[in-house]
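To assess whether ligand presence alters the predicted conformation, the chain was also submitted together with magnesium ion. Input:
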Amino acid sequence: MIEARGISKFYSVVNEKGLAEGLTAVLNVSLTIADGRIVSLLGPSGCGKSTFLEILAGLQAPTDGQIRIDGELVLEPLPSTRKEMEEYKRRYRFISPLANGVFTDRPKHDIAMIFQDYAVFPWMTAIQNVIFALNIRAADKKGSERPGRSEIRDKARFYLNKAGLSGMENKYPSQLSGGMRQRLALARALSVEPGIILMDEPFAAVDALQREKLQDDLLRLWGDAKAGGSPITIVMVSHDVQEAVFLSDEVVVFSPGPGGTIRNRIPVDAPRPRARTSPAIVDIQERILAILQYDINQESMCAI
Ligand SMILES: Nc1ncnc2c1ncn2[C@@H]1O[C@H](COP(=O)(O)OP(=O)(O)O)[C@@H](O)[C@H]1O
Ligand SMILES: [Mg+2]
């Protein structure tokens, strides 16, 4: 289970007059996501979706609030400079009576991430990209639990096939289409068999037809994992209402930013497999579009 409690993020930025200014990217977001669900974070650009997702992933610290995954606190990466380290220690000194636990027993969360801009290494072939991720996970395992080289290679090939990339193992990302590169990112994320996949507009840069195919494949792979007894929780940032509703068990609509807060939480109870044009799906899409439209109108009224 993912639990976000009272998450806020403030940035200090320098304005055009050279003065420091505060910017609220996320304001007091609390959200609980049960295991195995697909939840979309939807809202106009700039409303803090990516910031919130990065906080969920532990890639950056919230200014306020806490994230827990299966009860364990999510901590951002350890700082690299002395000054940042002092600030870090100050921030976490109240967490545990043994504050050192924050440095020594850092919980490892079972998360994989997929970004919009093909976060695959261009200098590695498709299979090398997947093997790279598997090797990182393998390094955490001890002795006889650690998989051997051929086991890792087989697993990489297995997930490339699953993601529809058989025959592409030895191609470099630059030799793949945009859709295929996202498939590679998907294969790499799935290969480590994570409990959670966080995606930031994963299909935004892919053309419409490819995009629908990728969505279908994502649902198939998610369903396979569930049927195999290791369900995957997916949290996906999107600004596409159709996509969010079609894929999700719940759509979390953010208010327009800056200062994104949760505007509405809309359950999508339609049974799976779903048809894109089924009345239940289309009805929810229209309700959400009406909410977004209302917010845009309110904003332009304010601007007058
Ligand atoms: N590192 C940063 N420093 C200052 N402002 C930032 C930073 N990252 C994001 N922001 C600002 O925070 C707000 C939310 O950004 P973001 O989370 O990227 O929104 P979204 O993903 O919904 O488009 C925006 O106004 C953005 O300009
Ligand atoms: Mg974003």
